[in-house]
């Protein structure tokens, strides 16, 4: 497969802007599946170009001061992140360590 570049490359530092540009037809993009999925399968606005390829996983850290009680906002966030990514088998939680 060969792709001819037309125009100048677009660079963004925000995944929402990246999704918007891709939906507007500005090119091929590497998007997180949770963002692209509604446009892939539900309505077909996007399509997978390399379905058998995935980028390497990258670490995600939630860091907070040790020995402190987690705030009312931080605790649900940490629990939600653990639930969201638990299917990957890569969650290492230090929430309950003392």
Question: What's the structural blueprint in terms of helices and strands?
Answer:
Elements: H1 15-23, H2 33-42, H3 74-85
Indicate how many domains the architecture comprises.
2
Fraction of residues in helix:
25-40%
Total of helices: 3
On the 0 to 100 scale, the average pLDDT is 79
Radius of gyration: 18 Å
Molecular shape: elongated
Strand content: under 5%
N-end to C-end Cα span: 53 Å
Number of strands: 0
- Main sheet? none
Structure classification = mainly alpha
Unreliable stretches covering 5 or more consecutive residues = none
Which series of helices and strands comes N to C?
Answer: HHH
Describe the 3D structure.
It is elongated and about 55 Å long. The longest helix has 12 residues, at 74-85. The chain has helices at residues 15-23, 33-42, 74-85. The mean pLDDT is 79. The chain has 98 residues and is mainly alpha-helical.
Which properties best describe this structure?
elongated, 2 domains, 98 residues, mainly alpha
Summarize the structure.
It contains three helices and no strands. By secondary structure, the protein is an all-alpha fold.
């Amino acid at each position: 497969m060969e792709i001819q570049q037309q125009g100048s490359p677009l660079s963004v530092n925000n995944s929402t802007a990246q999704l918007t540009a891709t939906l507007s037809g500005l090119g091929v993009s590497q998007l997180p599946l949770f963002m692209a999925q509604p446009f892939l399968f539900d309505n077909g606005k996007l399509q997978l170009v390399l379905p058998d390829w995935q980028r390497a996983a990258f670490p995600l850290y939630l860091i907070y001061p040790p020995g402190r009680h987690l705030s009312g906002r931080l605790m649900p966030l940490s629990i939600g992140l653990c639930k969201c990514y638990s299917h990957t088998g890569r969650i290492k939680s230090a929430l309950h360590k003392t």
